[in-house]
Amino acid sequence: MSNPTEPTPPSSAPVVPRPQVPHRDLLQLTVLPDEAELRADIVRLRAENNAVILAHNYQRPEVQGIADFVGDSLGLSRMAARTDADVIVFAGVHFMAETAAILNPEKTVLLPDLRAGCSLADTVTAQGIRDWKAKNPGGLVVTYVNTTADVKAVSDYCCTSGNAVQIVQSLPEGVPILFAPDRFLAAHVIRETGRQMDVWDGACHVHEAIRPEDVQGQQAAYPDAELLIHPECGCSSRILSAIPDLQLYSTEGMIGRAKTSAAQEFIVVTETGMVTRLEHDVPDKTFIPVSRTACCEYMKMITLENIRDSLLNLQPRVTVPEDIRAQALKPIERMLAIG
Ligand code: SF4
Asked: Which residues bind [4Fe-4S] cluster (predicted)?
């Protein structure tokens, strides 16, 4: 017989406390607004703030869908230079928002997620360029637009994949050319111009990871498809050694080629977001990504939610100190003047 003064032994059945608040609150979940609601908020806030949304070709489909302008780095730089909006929301990565801030010191430039960086831009620093110049006196530094404002400030010319060949062709003969930071784009420029260049050893992790085997696998699956290869891709040199007369295309160049080519199917050898842009601009043709993993996690950090929040709070802002801005403006303006 049990003693009534002794505590009752624990039951083997688990004791489940009755929740004091709904489970959703315990997990701190909130119901997401639907996309139509988000889009309506963005449209309203954009008008209230006299804002423009500029989106890179590698952005998510729904972000490209809400943007005022979708394009490559060069097109976005041009739009940033000519917009009369008071606020620029940059649906892209940090160096692109910096470029917009360099061109528009009087405007508010927003990057909806400040973590949106670029592995290629991170391969080079301003001090690295200064040291390189010191070892190559008289050399002209051409840097890809995928660089920080600090790096642009110590460069002579900027370029994008769309005009790198034209920029290098415009430089005087016999002058050493220092090209940074993308070694795959540099190889393309050397092939196209015949100019010798000293090349920085940088690459984008997304484009570098695209292998010739990825391209060949898609060619086997889609034998009638034409190749659209971006010059930043790690596969480009090996593919070109097999098909020497193959053209490489900047992202804007891909649009033009897809429109004019007789082909109906294309294998898109760059970041997967480009497929969205091509499907929008050339709706009667089929575009196949080279690989599902050719995806830039930095670009995909921009969402409808953080675009809405950035317009609501006018944060986070990207600014460039005036002394750096004034220096960085020169190579950008030279680029915009040439091509
Ligand atoms: S795709 Fe590569 S180059 Fe473009 S933003 Fe992403 S990391 Fe940078």
From this structure: 118, 204, 296
For the chain, list the domains and their CATH numbers.
35-117+300-319 (3.40.50.10800), 121-204+326-338 (3.40.50.10800), 206-295 (3.40.50.10800)
Cβ–ligand 1 contact at 119 (below 6 Å): yes
CA distance 208 to 286: 25
pLDDT along the chain (339 residues), means of 10: 52 60 58 85 98 97 96 86 94 96 94 97 98 96 96 96 93 96 94 95 94 94 96 82 86 95 97 96 97 95 97 98 97 89
Protein residue with least CA distance to atom 6, ligand 1: 296
- Would you say the CB of residue 206 lies under 6 angstroms from ligand 1? yes
Which atom of ligand 1 is least distant from the CA of 93?
A: 5
User: Which of 315, 312, 302 has the alpha carbon at shortest distance from 109?
Assistant: 315
273: nearest Cα among 258, 287, 256 = 287
Under 8 Å between Cβ of 185 and 208: no
Give the ranges where 157-299 is alpha helix by DSSP (H): 164-169, 183-193, 205-208, 212-221, 236-242, 251-260, 273-281
Q: Is residue 103 in contact with ligand 1, taking CB distance under 6 Å?
A: no
